[in-house]
Amino acid sequence: MKKKRKSKRDNKKLSNKNIETPQNKNNKTVKKKSLFKKVFSCILVILSIWSVFLTTWVVFNPNVSVEPSVLLDPNNPAYTVFTVHNQGYFNIYDVKFSCSIKYLKLPGNIHVVGLGEYTNSFSDPKQVATVIAAGKKYSELLPLTGMKHNKIENADIAIVLSFRTTKWFPWQRKTLHRFVATKGKDKKWYWLPQPIKK
Q1: 47-67 pLDDT, tens per residue?
Q2: How far apart are CA 101 and CA 50, in angstroms?
Q3: So what's the pLDDT on residue 9?
Q4: Which of 60, 36, 48, 19 is nearest to 171 (CA)?
Q5: Which of 158, 160, 183, 198 is 20 to 30 A (C-alpha) from 115?
Q6: Is the pTM of this model over 0.85?
Q7: Neighbours of 68 (CB within 10 A)
C-alpha cells in the first residue's frame, strides 16, 4: 500500500511539472525574442557586408564605353570624333584620351607597325577631361597626330583611356578599346569595334 501511495505522489509531481505557469510562458517568450534578435542581427550583418562589397565593386569597376561618333572627312578616317560614355553610377576623374597603333597602312604602300600589342600610345595634352559625370558623354578628335594629311588605307588601333574612379584615389585605371578602319561599299570609312585579344 505504501508503494502505491508513493507512486501517486510521484504522478502528482510530474503532473505539476507539466502544468504551464505564467513564469514558464514568460521564459519561452524571452527565448523567442532573443532568438529573433540574433537572427535579425545576422541578417543585418550579411546585408551590410554585401552592400559594402557591391558599392566597392561599382566604384572600382566603372562601365565606360568608347565609340566613333562623327567622321569629319569621309576620305580620311583620321578625322574622326570619338565619344567616351560614362555608363556607370559614379563620376570618373582626370580622363586622358590617347591612341595606340598596332598597324597603319598609308598611301604609297607605307606600313606603320606598333612596337607591341597596343603598348605604345600618344596623345594631345589638351585632350583631358577633368570629370565625366555619371551618364554623361565626352567627345574628342582621334589623336592621330601627323596622320591627318595622309589618307589612311587601313588601320588597327586602340583608344586608351586612363582615369581615376574617385578624387582621392591616387592610382589611375586604364581601359583599351580596339577599332579597325574599314571602307564600306558606299566608299565611306567606318571604325569597327574589335576585341583586344585576337
Answers
A1: 666 565 545 544 556 789 999
A2: 41
A3: 53
A4: 60
A5: 183
A6: no
A7: 19
Q: Which residue has the cell 588601320?
A: 155
HEC secondary structure over 53-100? HHHHHHHHCCCEEEEEEEECCCCCCCCEEEEEEECCCCCEEEEEEEEE
Decide: 158 and 100 in contact? Cβ < 8 Å: yes
Grid coordinates in use for 152?
Answer: 589612311
DSSP-derived 3-state class of residue 145? coil
Confidence check: pLDDT of 129 > 80: yes
CA dist 158 and 175 (Å) reads: 10
**What single-letter DSSP state applies at residue 122?**
B
Q: Which of 194, 172, 190, 171 is nearest to 181 (CA)?
A: 190
Cell of 4: 502505491
Among candidate residues 146, 144, 171, 177, the one with its CA nearest the CA of residue 65: 177
Sequence letter at residue 106? L
